Amino acid sequence: MLTSPQGKLGNDLSGQTFKTHFAALMQSQHFQAAEKVRQRDLLGNLIFNYVSRLVHINFVRKVTGMILDLFENNPADFNLTISDYELFKVKVREAVTLISHQSPISPSANRKPLYLNE
User: Fold this and answer.
1) Measuring CA to CA, which of 17, 25, 75, 100 is 20 to 30 A from 83?
2) Cβ distance 61 to 36 under 8 Å?
3) Would you state the pLDDT for residue 100?
4) Residue 52 — φ and ψ, nearest 5°?
5) What is the pLDDT of residues 70-104, one digit of tens each?
């Protein structure tokens, strides 16, 4: 089972739980007091946990990094993305599509699904 700063994520990936995890992290004193690099690490751990449940392991780190780039480059889009689980899943799929078009060898070439629910 994966853990977040607030405890175990468990199997509940409802939109409300997703939103609650990110809100709790970003409103925590630990997060607020942290430097930007540490904030990125904390967010990255939580994003990684959710992304790893959605896509093939070959894409998890890259997709997590792409979503974290929003935190630095487009904070408004990042905040919107982490406030809505359905939008988060759309962003994850967009990231996988970009990666799979750029990569000469993708998991699909090895007959592995890009998304875990395939």
Assistant:
1) 100
2) no
3) 87
4) -65, -15
5) 999 999 999 999 999 999 999 999 999 999 888 65
Q: In the structure encoding, which two tokens stand for residue 78, read together?
A: 């990042």
Question: Distance (Å, rounded) from C-alpha 66 to C-alpha 118?
Answer: 22
Query: Which is nearest to 62 in space by CA: 97, 90, 37?
Result: 97
| CA 91 – CA 110 distance, rounded (Å) | 24
Q: Do residues 47 and 68 touch, judged by C-beta distance below 8 A?
A: yes
Mean pLDDT of the region 21-36: 96
Both tokens of 39, joined, read 């904030």
Taking a C-beta distance cutoff of 8 angstroms, is the pair 64, 44 a contact? yes
SS (HEC) of the chain? CCEECCEECCCCCCHHHHHHHHHHHHHCHHHHHCCHHHHHHHHHHHHHHHHCCCECHHHHHHHHHHHHHHHHHCHHHHHHHHHCHHHHHHHHHHHHHHHHHHCCCCHHHHCCCCECCC
